[in-house]
Design brief:
The structure is a single chain. This protein is α+β, with helices and mostly antiparallel strands. The chain folds into four domains: 34-57 and 305-373, conserved putative lor/sdh protein from methanococcus maripaludis s2 fold (Beta Barrel), CATH 2.40.420; 61-71 and 221-302, Efflux pump adaptor protein, beta barrel domain (Elongation Factor Tu (Ef-tu), domain 3); 75-107 and 181-220, OB fold (Dihydrolipoamide Acetyltransferase, E2P) (Beta Barrel), CATH 2.40.50; 109-174, Helix hairpin bin (Helix Hairpins, Orthogonal Bundle). It has five helices and 22 strands. The strands form five sheets. It has a six-stranded antiparallel beta barrel with strand order 3-12-15-14-13-16. The chain has a four-stranded antiparallel beta sheet with strand order 1-19-18-17. Strands 4-11-9-6 form a four-stranded antiparallel beta sheet, with no helix packed on it.
């Protein structure tokens, strides 16, 4: 009986020791540089893990640029006559068709042009009569050859002058219609009135008045725009037409506009030693506005390399790290370990090439890593 009591006592002590060790394992803390998370914590933190593999990565040329109109879809409207604006027909944002009135300008140039035609017609009639008279006299040997040739020259000059006067008048009245003091400024193309720099009563300078004319209207389409950028001479050999381009603007920092390089200038700027390049972008939503400053990333030298998504790479102080999945803890929690890596960060690709610090196939955190950095 005594021996039975001792045996039972030893068994109870052993069982208590096993329970204590299991409890200690359940409450174990992760060592420095690691984080142990349950499946629920991983799900709540939206942590995603993926294996490291080779990806299509590319080098990039980073430069600055600006958004510009597509020159084939924009018209800058100036007044050909000098005068005062009496009426405005087009408003900002209005869509107009080719030939639609934009504004009316009261100008003396109109009546002067009409008078010039009348004077030129009279001069031509007089020169023609004199020419025929001198020609008859010359054929009858009653006038010198010099007088005949002089009359012929005057007649040709008068014909040239009437042509010039009529061309100017035709320009003012759009090829037809009655000429009055009011000149109707019309839309040269179909599109939207993007800018208007004129108000009723303002004096405008004509294109043919010898001054400095001001652009009165800008008409065009913004469904497709250009982005112009400058590439340094040292990078020119790597840039080709068709290279992928990514553009970002300050107004929409999270928005990425993707396109391709479609033109490289054949002339080098001697002052900046750069070459102008252009890429076109669909802009149906109208987010890109002309004259916006842009950051332009031109992709070059695409190749296969071991790479990670940008979100997988975390900067902690002066270190660049990733978080690798390294198995399970004794209590079943998933273990994540912080590892320093060396990468080559590029702005034009969604992939970051890994130089060393992680091997192919290693499962790393590709989303939610910033939360893990606060647990270590």
């Amino acid at each position: 009986m005594q021996r039975l009591r001792i045996l039972l006592l030893l068994l109870s002590v052993g069982a208590a020791g096993c329970k204590h060790e299991a409890a200690a394992a359940d409450n174990a803390e992760a060592p420095p540089g690691q984080a142990w998370l349950t499946e629920t914590q991983i799900k709540d933190a939206k942590i995603e893990v993926a294996p490291v593999d080779e990806q299509d990565v590319d080098d990039t040329i980073l430069t600055s640029g600006r958004v510009a109109f597509d020159d084939t879809k924009v018209a800058h409207v100036y007044s050909p006559v000098t005068g005062r604006v009496t009426h405005i027909d087009a408003t900002l944002g209005q869509r107009v068709k080719q030939g639609d009135p934009l504004a009316v300008i009261d100008s003396p140039d109109m009546s002067i042009a009409s008078s010039d035609v009348g004077k030129a017609e009279a001069d031509l009639s007089a020169a023609e009569h004199d020419y025929h008279r001198k020609k008859d006299l010359f054929e009858q040997h009653a006038a010198s050859q010099a007088d005949y040739e002089q009359a012929q020259d005057n007649y040709l000059k008068a014909k040239a002058e009437i042509d010039r006067a009529r061309q100017k008048l035709r320009l003012f009245r759009g090829g037809g219609g009655q000429v009055t003091q009011g000149y109707a400024l019309t839309a040269p193309i179909e599109g939207e009135v993007i800018a208007r720099n004129v108000s009723p009563g303002i004096e405008v300078q004509g294109l043919y008045g010898g001054g400095s004319p001001v652009e009165l209207f800008t008409i065009g389409e913004l469904d497709r725009v250009w982005v112009l950028a400058d590439v340094y001479e040292m990078d020119l050999a790597r840039v080709k037409v068709g290279s992928p381009v990514i553009v970002k603007v300050v107004a929409f920092p999270e928005k990425v506009f993707s396109g391709k390089l479609d033109w490289i200038s054949g002339v080098l700027d001697p002052a900046t030693r750069t070459v102008r390049v252009r890429c076109s972008f669909d802009n149906a939503d109208g987010l890109l506005k002309p004259e916006m400053f842009a950051t332009v990333s031109i992709s070059v030298d695409e190749k296969k390399a071991l790479a990670l998504p940008h979100d997988a790479v975390i900067r902690m102080g002066d270190q660049t790290v990733i978080f690798a999945e390294v198995g399970r803890a004794p209590d079943g929690r998933m273990k994540f370990e912080r590892r320093p890596v060396s990468v080559d960060e590029g702005e034009g690709s969604k992939w970051v090439p890994v130089q060393h610090g992680v091997d192919k196939g290693t499962r790393v955190v590709v989303s939610g890593g910033i939360l893990l950095s606060g647990m270590m």
